[in-house]
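Structure in, sequence out. Go:
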């Protein structure tokens, strides 16, 4: 079913306020609580006062109940009985809550965050706070309340320079009375299509996903989605799975045989509460199995070091749902290495990932074009790119050290993966040559010393001052087991002796590339 053409309009603030007061505009329950800071609220008021644009409001007009209404206290909106037709706010909740709350403080809300005053002398907005406002200040809530406004006008009339202050007050009132806001209204009974539009809206800089939207869907009245999500996310976080709500919901969908897409997630609302409860518990156990797999085969102890959600979903389907057999395990491990080294899922659309998850056996056997499990990593990438927290190549690079059973260069002690594989903090990797030395040594365009080929791993976050001497010392005592675990051979040591950074890095890169090939199985 097609969505009717959006109905754009431009409404005065006071018209929007009237629509909110009568219940023609409502906040659905999927919207987050009011979270704006004092600074954000005041910047919005300044923009309106100066006639700057504040972005459009997106509304969804419905003739009957589709979503749950947000409970009282979520925003500054009044608590009213539901009547239809009405308009759900899809985008603009923080802005509308700010404006309505500020001008209705003491009427529909007593929240002190909305008690904002304007100083007619300084021209500044501020929260009332713990101190009394100056005698030239007026609460914004008085601007649209005639009786209260008259009282404040009387007080101002007794002050010095009262004529100028009253002119400022009238101009302030006019700026808000005359301000107009672009409003776009969509009308459709097709919730899936509306969610598709909703997902693409991001005018406030905060991405809201289908999980947020689902919080208000009818079945949530009998099934507390928030409770099960909180319970599930807490349970899997105990084993290092710091996944988001959407990933958890997608895993629940996979348990029920539903594709991890927006349309698929919305199908969950048709499931019986008992089946959903079972699916959540099954998802928890499945994710725990995935974490055990990552720990055992890749030394990865946190999903922070799993670059892509698609990797988690595929492993959940293969390992978490016990679809994989013993012969599949090595292939899954090799595929994981290949995706990380190649950054294979970077920029891939959701439907691509969904097909890969559904056909995971074909994927690990090389049957999905673009994601074949073979190494594409080049020496140039290791020579020119730097290690960064959260990067796919960086996370996989760290895992390669764990696979190599890296030892601490100063003492030869084994560095347990928990030191550097329990989060995406890469501070345990420290550079051998400083950036200035790299520039002088033949790498003029280097912007960082933390290049893959120039960093080594330490058991603590602080490298010794005499790092190069430590490496050379390990060679002199013939501790090649430690140096080899850090991808350092005799050629690299010889380069260190003469401070040849490029030669040192090239020697290491050859070892790293060979190790990566072995891990990918190519």
């Amino acid at each position: 079913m097609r969505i009717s053409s959006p109905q754009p309009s431009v409404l005065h603030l006071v018209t929007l306020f009237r629509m909110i007061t009568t219940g023609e505009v409502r906040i659905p329950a999927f919207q987050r609580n009011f979270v704006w800071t004092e600074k954000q609220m005041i910047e919005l008021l300044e923009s309106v006062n100066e006639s700057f644009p504040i972005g459009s409001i997106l509304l969804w007009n419905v003739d009957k109940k589709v979503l749950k209404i947000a409970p009282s206290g979520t925003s500054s909106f009044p608590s009213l009985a539901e009547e239809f037709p009405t308009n759900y706010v899809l985008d603009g909740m923080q802005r509308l809550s700010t404006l309505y709350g500020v001008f209705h403080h003491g009427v529909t809300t007593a929240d002190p965050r909305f008690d904002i005053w304007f100083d007619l002398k300084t021209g500044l907005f501020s929260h009332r706070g713990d101190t009394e406002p100056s005698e030239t200040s007026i609460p914004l809530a008085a601007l649209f309340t005639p009786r209260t406004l008259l009282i404040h006008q009387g007080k101002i009339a007794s002050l010095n320079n009262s004529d100028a202050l009253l002119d400022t007050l009238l101009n302030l009132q006019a700026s808000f009375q005359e301000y107009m806001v672009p409003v776009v209204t969509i009308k459709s009974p097709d919730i899936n299509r509306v969610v598709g539009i909703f997902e693409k809206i991001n005018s406030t800089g905060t991405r809201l996903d289908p999980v947020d939207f689902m919080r208000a869907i009818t079945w949530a009245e009998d099934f507390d989605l928030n409770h099960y999500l909180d319970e599930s996310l807490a349970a899997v976080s105990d084993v290092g799975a710091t996944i988001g709500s959407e990933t958890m919901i997608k895993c629940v969908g996979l348990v029920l045989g539903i594709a991890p897409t927006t349309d698929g997630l919305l199908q969950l609302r048709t499931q019986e509460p008992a089946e959903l409860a079972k699916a959540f518990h099954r998802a928890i156990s499945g994710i725990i199995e995935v974490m055990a797999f990552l720990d055992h085969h890749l030394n990865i102890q946190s999903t922070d070091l799993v670059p892509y959600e698609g990797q988690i979903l595929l492993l959940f389907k293969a390992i978490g749902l016990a679809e994989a057999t013993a012969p599949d395990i090595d292939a899954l491990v090799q595929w994981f290495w290949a995706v990380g080294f190649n950054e294979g899922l970077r920029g891939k659309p959701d439907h691509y990932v969904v097909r890969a998850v559904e056909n995971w056996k074909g994927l690990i056997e090389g049957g999905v074009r673009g994601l074949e499990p073979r190494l594409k990593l080049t020496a140039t990438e290791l020579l020119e790119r730097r290690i960064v927290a959260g990067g796919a190549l960086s996370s996989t690079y760290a895992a390669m050290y764990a696979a190599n059973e890296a030892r601490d260069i100063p003492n030869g002690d084994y560095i347990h993966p928990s030191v550097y594989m329990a989060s995406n903090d890469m501070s345990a990797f420290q550079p051998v040559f400083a950036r200035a030395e790299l520039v002088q040594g033949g790498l003029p365009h280097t912007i960082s010393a933390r290049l893959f080929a120039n960093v080594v791993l330490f058991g603590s976050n602080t490298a010794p001052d005499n790092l190069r001497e430590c490496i050379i010392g390990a060679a002199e005592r013939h501790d090649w087991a430690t140096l080899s675990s850090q991808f350092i051979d005799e050629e690299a040591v010889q380069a260190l002796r003469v401070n040849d950074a490029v030669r040192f890095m090239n020697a290491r890169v050859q070892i790293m590339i060979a190790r990566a090939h072995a891990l990918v199985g190519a």
